Amino acid sequence: MPRNRNHTPEIRCIHFPSTVESKSTSVPYTKQQLQEFFKQHDKDGDKLLSKEELKKAFDDLHSRNPGFRAWRAMGKADADGDQHISQQEMEALLDYAVGKKYPVKA
């Protein structure tokens, strides 16, 4: 079968979003915002954060793996090894969480 020499190949346009369109406008939580956020997750009011309370907090921050984040945060911040984050240990928890740059959800 002979080729049609007058046939023009179909040209398809592909739209690539500009860098302005694809740039995220989210802003990460500040240390003060995270401190309030974690305080709100102290559900039993004992001024300590348990691993389960931390897990729920990281879940609410939309962490991809909140159980791992809670375990890792506990390892970074639980200086006395009692499996709770106290007010004295909060600074280390905040440093860890701020470093993850969780975006504030609108």
Automatic annotation (TrEMBL):
The keyword Cell division does not apply. SMART domains: EFh. Keywords: Calcium. SUPFAM superfamilies: EF-hand. Residues 29-64 form the EF-hand domain. Pfam families: EF-hand_7 (PF13499). This is EF-hand domain-containing protein. GO terms for molecular function: calcium ion binding. It comes from Vitis rotundifolia (Muscadine grape). The keyword Calcium applies.
